[in-house]
């Protein structure tokens, strides 16, 4: 467990605030130091706001705040595949850019066909051009494996599927593979999502399709 009072010279003499989370965690820390770490803490502990000493950090889990405070004091980020998403969300909320970037780097190192589409959904939640470029490049190059082995294909948002299918960088051996992807997506899509079917079909280069191999699932769709 993090203990800010033991990480700076002066110990408890310099620890002048307590950060609390809704799940009951409490952390002693140093307002002056925290103000150097992010605009969030600068605003929180600025003189214009009365520089509070006991603060509830809403929306952040205690375990995630523990990791982030330890990182800011020691430059050591202790995360794994089970905790990285909580820490990433907290780092983004608290505007702790260095920790946020390290979390995204960890996700990239763990990228595979099974989780690529899930990582793709994060590209709009967390702005990071390097992360977005790496995820989309991997998805384009390995698209056949990605859509067939994805653990979250049924949850893929329309915007992400469209961005992938419409890209000239998409690597598919047969254009009918694009139809197969759309057919599979349609079979699990909500009524609201299904209204976007025509938009997705515009991504298909019909002239390159062999109609005798077009998936019967797609041919049976009412809009066709």
From TrEMBL:
Pfam families to which the protein is assigned, alphabetical? BACK, BTB
What is the taxonomic lineage of the source species? Eukaryota, Metazoa, Ecdysozoa, Arthropoda, Chelicerata
The UniProt entry, under InterPro entries, shows: BACK (IPR011705), BTB/POZ_dom (IPR000210), SKP1/BTB/POZ_sf (IPR011333)
Keywords, in A-Z order: Actin-binding, Kelch repeat, Repeat
List the PROSITE patterns. Answer: BTB (PS50097)
Origin species: Amblyomma americanum
Q: What is this protein called?
A: BTB domain-containing protein
Which intervals hold domain BTB? 15-81
């Amino acid at each position: 467990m993090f203990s800010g009072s033991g990480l700076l010279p002066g110990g408890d003499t310099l620890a002048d605030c307590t950060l609390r989370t809704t799940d009951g965690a409490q952390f002693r820390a140093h307002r002056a130091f925290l103000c150097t770490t992010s605009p969030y803490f600068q605003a929180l502990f600025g003189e214009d706001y009365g520089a509070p000493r006991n603060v509830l950090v809403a929306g952040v889990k205690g375990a995630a705040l523990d990791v982030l405070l330890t990182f800011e004091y020691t430059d050591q980020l202790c995360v794994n595949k089970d905790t990285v998403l909580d820490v990433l969300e907290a780092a983004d909320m608290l505007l702790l850019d260095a920790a946020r970037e390290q979390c995204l780097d960890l996700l990239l190192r763990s990228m595979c066909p099974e989780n690529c589409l899930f990582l793709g959904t994060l590209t709009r939640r967390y702005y990071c051009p390097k992360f977005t470029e790496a995820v989309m490049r991997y998805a384009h190059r390995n698209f056949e494996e990605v859509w067939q082995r994805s653990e979250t294909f049924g949850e893929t948002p329309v915007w992400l599927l469209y961005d992938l299918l419409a890209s000239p960088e998409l690597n598919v051996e047969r254009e009918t593979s694009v139809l197969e992807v759309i057919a599979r997506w349609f079979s699990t899509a909500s009524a609201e999502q299904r209204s976007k079917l025509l938009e997705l079909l515009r991504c298909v280069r019909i002239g390159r399709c062999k109609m005798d191999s077009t998936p019967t699932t797609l041919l049976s769709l009412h809009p066709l």
